[in-house]
Write a structure and sequence with these properties.
Layout: H1 3-18, H2 21-28, H3 34-55, H4 59-66, H5 69-92, H6 94-115, H7 123-139, H8 149-174, H9 179-193, H10 195-198, H11 207-230, H12 237-243, H13 246-257, H14 265-286
Helix pairs in contact: 1-11, 1-13, 1-14, 2-11, 3-5, 3-9, 3-11, 4-9, 5-6, 5-8, 5-9, 6-7, 6-8, 6-12, 7-14, 8-12
Length: about 300
């Protein structure tokens, strides 16, 4: 298996772990407020990433990473994604908010990466992303119809934040920084920014709440983003964001088979389309040589 193939598999595995979040909350903490969940998840997940980096002897590199202004921008984007995603889904509805943020992220990441000279995402990415987004629309079609402009804008902002921290992460990794150090540095900054939301709720003061926080933080964040980091050096930002559309497929299937939710014919067709698109992107992308990358404007940021 080539390095690019391993990167594709790792990002898909990360997306699968991300997709367990909704089911975890439904089973263990159904009444937990969204912003507090996001904050606690980020706090525990960032702590896990920092511990992994320190255990690997990367403490000094992590301190150096915290001194870079661009990492603070990445950390703000991480916090912004978490906060805006939950705020958007609360106001516009889970289906619409998820659709807008996840559908917008691949396009925004691909275009932003191209602007910052990470290389054009390519026609395979364009076709596979269009197929995946069409599948995502079908996947959530039964819950569409909610129109809340502010919530939709918040969800779009979440997609933009995702694009920003993915593109910055790719650039830093290709400059030679260890992906785990990049992620630990930015996520710890994001956790500090969201700390007020973490301490204003007591939903996690129970065994089920603690279990939910530990899984969301360590499993669906620490482990997931260590896998996500494997893709930072080998894949174009838009490709990473498109592969992450596997997340809603996993979330939907867990809802059907574990929570007993219903999925109509359109939903099953949508899930198949997303999987076909990801298979296309993963297969063709893994057989193509990585684009050469010209210096970017971010390289001049200390």
């Amino acid at each position: 298996m080539s390095g690019r193939s391993r990167a594709v598999v790792a990002v898909l595995m990360a997306a699968g772990l991300f997709g367990t979040s909704a089911t975890t909350l439904a089973l263990l903490a159904p009444s937990a407020p969204g912003p507090s969940v996001a904050a606690m998840r980020l706090l525990v997940g960032a702590a896990g990433l920092v511990l992994v980096v320190v255990a690997r002897g990367g403490g000094r590199a992590l301190v150096g990473m915290w001194r870079r202004p661009v990492v603070w921008l990445m950390g703000a984007a991480v916090a912004g994604y978490q906060a805006l995603f939950f705020m958007g889904t609360i106001r516009a509805g889970v289906a619409v908010g998820t659709l807008i943020s996840l559908a917008a992220a691949p396009f925004l990441a691909g275009v932003l990466g191209w602007i910052l000279r990470e290389g054009p995402p390519g026609w395979t990415w364009v076709v596979s992303t269009l197929i995946a987004v069409a599948g995502l629309v079908l996947l959530v079609s039964s819950n569409l119809g909610v129109e809340e402009p502010i919530g939709m804008l918040l969800a779009l902002g979440a997609g933009a934040c995702y694009a920003v921290y993915t593109v910055i992460g790719v650039r830093l990794a290709r400059e030679g920084a260890a992906p785990s150090v990049v992620l630990a540095g930015s996520f710890s900054i994001g956790a500090v920014l969201l700390l007020p939301a973490a301490v204003t709720s007591t939903w996690w003061w129970s065994w089920s709440g603690v279990a939910a926080v530990l899984w969301l933080g360590l499993g669906a964040t620490t482990v997931a983003y260590l896998l996500f980091g494997v893709g930072l050096r080998s894949l174009q930002p838009g490709h990473i964001a498109t592969l992450n559309l596997f997340e809603p497929v996993v979330a939907t299937l867990l809802g059907v088979f574990i929570l007993g939710e219903q999925l109509g014919m359109a939903g099953w067709l949508g899930a198949v389309l997303v999987l076909v698109a990801l298979g296309l992107l993963g297969f063709v992308g893994s057989r193509s040589p990585r684009n050469a990358h010209a210096p970017s404007t971010l390289e001049r940021i200390p």
